[in-house]
Amino acid sequence: MTKLAAFQQIFRLPDALLPYVDLVATAQEIDLVVALGERALSVGQVAEALGLGGAAAERLLLDATLRAVVERVVEDSAICYRACNAYRRVTYLSMQDYDGWLRVPEDVRATLIEWHLDENIRHHDLARRLDLLRQDPDSLEIHNRDILLLEEALEIVAAAELHVVVPCDCRTTVAACAHERWNTCFRLDDRGRWTLEMGEGQIVTKEECIQILLNADRAGLIHTGQRAEKGRKATVNGNCCACCSYPIRAGMALGMAQQWPRRHYLAHRDEARCVGCGVCVERCPFGALFCREAEDGCMEIVFDADACFGCGLCANTCPEGAMTMRPLSV
Ligand code: SF4
Ligand code: SF4
Description:
15 helices; 43% helix; 13 strands; binds iron/sulfur cluster
């Protein structure tokens, strides 16, 4: 077996990515992954396997860890390294080398994006978790569980003490829209501390975080995170678009649209107040509001409650206050 074939097998690299392997790993990282195989090795063992000095092996492992080519694990109380996989690497690749990722031809990227969503579903064990949600809609056994209204997200950000921003890996990977992709997702408090420990993210002030949130809302992004429930702390994770978001796309792919991430509100249109300006139609990311010709030949605004994700983007921009959000549990 050639070295490249061994790397492809260990790293679970899809065939479509093989011609672009230089984006995925350097020649030295390929040697590293092949040397690791399915094992976890210490810095000393890696140095010996690759014929490197200790400091050079340490530097290689640090860089490869930050690039998600390898991951650090603890084995028998000792720090070791094991090979990562193409799924994790692609998540980081698009954030670390966005221009390189965009150089992959569009049709190949489209295939890879489909593969990456399937891998995401497998990686997070989503089929099982969403089954739990089907049985118990209040199950907390899932990340990024809730769609949040702007006012809910603002309250959560205001209550947090540590505000860390990270790029949106959904939009850097899928790249299906022009929405902001850099420093637009949040890691608050404990998760922020963990993110910084991993060498990722950037601290911003509370005021800066609030401004990022307001800008995202103005641009038409949906806020997701988790509500405070069953002793769990509320948090805001993402400012998501319908076209790139992995949770939204995975929820749809698994027949759980609106249940994960979960909507908690439904839009309501007061026809008497509506002047038919169409702002809400432009704003709705899910096509739940649209224009059609009425029987009298005039255009009318139609609301499809089944398509509504309860994001509140229509309500917070309707100039007449004709769109409001109603809690689903009431
Ligand atoms: S934004 Fe408000 S006023 Fe304009 S069409 Fe929508 S509901 Fe009517
Ligand atoms: S109609 Fe529903 S999905 Fe569309 S913008 Fe309003 S709340 Fe969001």
